Amino acid sequence: MAASPEQSPGDVVLRVEGLRKHFTTPGGFRRQPVVVRAVDDVSFDLARGETLGVVGESGCGKSTVARTLMRLDEPTAGRALLDGADVFAMGPRELRRARRRMQIVFQDPYASLNPRMTVEEIIAEPWDIHPEVLERRERPERVRALLESVGLRRDHAERYPHQFSGGQLQRIGVARAMALEPEVLICDEPVSALDVSVQAQVVNLLEEIQARLGIAYIFIAHDLAVVRHLSHRIAVMYLGRIVEIGPEAEISEAPRHPYTKALLSAEPRLDLDAESDAAPRQRILLGGEVPSPADPPSGCRFRTRCWKATELCAREAPPLTADPESRSRPPRLVACHFPESDAGS
Amino acid sequence: MSDPAATPVAAAAEAVQVRRRLPLWRLLVRDRFALVAAFWLALLVVCMAFGPELLGKAATALDLRARNTPPGSLEKGWLAVLGTDALGRSMLARLVVATRNTMAVALTAITLALLVGGLLGMIAGYVGGWSSHLIMRGADVLQSFPSLLLAVVVLYVLEPRVSNLVVVLAVTRLPVYVRVARAEVLEIRERLFVQAARALGGGRRHILRRHIAPVVAPTLLTILTVDFAVVMLAESSLSFLGIGIQPPEITWGLMVAQGRNHLAVAWWLSFLPGLAIMLAAMSANVLSSWLRTVGDPSQRWRLEAPRGER
């Protein structure tokens, strides 16, 4: 397998520009079609071997980003440059080749494996689709090697999915995704359906694979703790947009966007050193409901639940701009008219 | 990670693993109903293969002294054990000889309906768009038209040959398979493992063959076994009207129809071929349900587990 690639910030493997996915409900007699802007202008870079965590409430468009990047749903607009080639503009043949470089692990391990196929057939399916990758006679051995590399036994190959636990199934899902040796692995809430104890095992497995093969991850989750543990950079999404994106350390130390701050404050934490010096963390409870992406608020989308919102926020949507205090390159970006500052919070 | 074999669930899985090695015929022996059904169908296959050659003469030999002998006695020879018809012909011989025609017509018709209907339904379900509209409206038209009327019209216009009969019967059964296949596909195509196959780069044909057909096939097979009897009786109605199988060729359906005239004095003339139709259809049904269980990895243990553990 490929050696771990050089890791430099400029080495972008996937660049997403202006991704939009709008769903249109069918119109009818005296009924206007409704446009749901599930993902509205999302852009980010993914460096080789890096993990980008994507967090946000359910319904914020995280999974839609994953599905459109894999072209399981067709994007409405935007570009996704995989080493310079636009995945969204590819024809069937090019796309087929691109899929060898970009893979996905789904949330529900029970549903994502065909119950009528043996584990061996499941893990070998990628090679049935891309027969040029691996010679037929080498496949049985490679299946078993992959099983071992995800912490299962060689003889598990002959079994069926119903004979495994959720965590084991997710390992099989990871092994299937790894069969094509992709450069980018999209993990769409891969541990949300698992028990907490099993979550840690799968997360560790993903970390170990990355360390060994230098794969870039887009790791989607609603559990901030898991994302923070695994990610080099974090993107926070709200109602189809990225509100803040930057290095994990900067964001969890000092969130700039009020929504990020609220998310972080909601995270349960053992404050063992609470009495020493750190100021007691205040929990921010957001009022109200997430607005419908079919009818988002004017200006800043978060303003209806933001304690800092002013008239300006209702009038003008804040663009993603570089945080002047950011020490990282590329700098952290925040979409807020009144970002928190190191001094202020 | 701890050794998976240490947990009870994994240990149970281990046990299943060991049992899975049983060959198919051992599984069949364990299920008595399926075994009987399989034997009956095998007997029918033998009748189909050799019946007309062995008993063809006996089936047409008249014996006017032994007219309408009731079944259940060996006085008039072993051929009359199931009784004789109004012309003194052996019912047993006629039933055996009719197997070939009956099966040839009914089996070919429903197999044709299943293959064509299943394929059209899968296309309508997976590809969608205008092809789906075209296929489904076609099915609507076929279904809203009384099938017997359709058959009568077609067989009057064309000549009542066996091949035409088969095609007409297949066409009238088509909509059921189209609809069921489409409905199943619509559900399966949204399953995550199909999405995963798409993400891997699998094309339509790969997904239809690998993931969708194996799920749709057992359902269609079950419908087929029910249709078996329906088609045999439809064929008998057409034969009764004189546009199906032409005497002296015989089928079970035709025998039911012919026995109708003598129902008051000789019930067995219609009852026995009717029974043959029912038994054949039921055996096919039982065996297909057994096959369905065997083919489903998460159900197969029901057959593998020793009796009492089920």
What does this structure look like?
- The complex is a heterodimer of chains A (345) and B (310).
- Chain A is of the alpha/beta class.
- In chain A, 28% of the residues lie in helices and 20% in strands.
- Chain A has helices at residues 62-69, 92-99, 119-129, 139-149, 166-178, 196-213, 224-230, 248-253, 258-265, 311-315, and strands at residues 12-24, 35-47, 51-55, 77-82, 85-86, 102-105, 184-188, 216-220, 233-238, 241-247, 321-322, 333-334.
- In chain A, the strands form 2 sheets. Chain A has an 8-stranded mixed sheet with strand order 6-7-8-3-9-10-12-11, with helices on both faces. A 4-stranded antiparallel sheet of chain A has the order 2-1-4-5, with helices on one face.
- The relative contact order of chain A is 0.14.
- Chain B has helices spanning 8-19, 24-30, 32-60, 91-126, 129-144, 147-157, 162-188, 192-199, 204-240, 252-259, 268-295, 301-304.
Give the helix/strand layout.
The complex is a heterodimer of chains A (345) and B (310).
Chain A: E1 12-24, E2 35-47, E3 51-55, H1 62-69, E4 77-82, E5 85-86, H2 92-99, E6 102-105, H3 119-129, H4 139-149, H5 166-178, E7 184-188, H6 196-213, E8 216-220, H7 224-230, E9 233-238, E10 241-247, H8 248-253, H9 258-265, H10 311-315, E11 321-322, E12 333-334
Chain B: H1 8-19, H2 24-30, H3 32-60, H4 91-126, H5 129-144, H6 147-157, H7 162-188, H8 192-199, H9 204-240, H10 252-259, H11 268-295, H12 301-304
Helix pairs in contact in B: 3-4, 3-11, 4-5, 4-7, 4-9, 5-7, 6-7, 7-9, 9-10, 9-11, 10-11
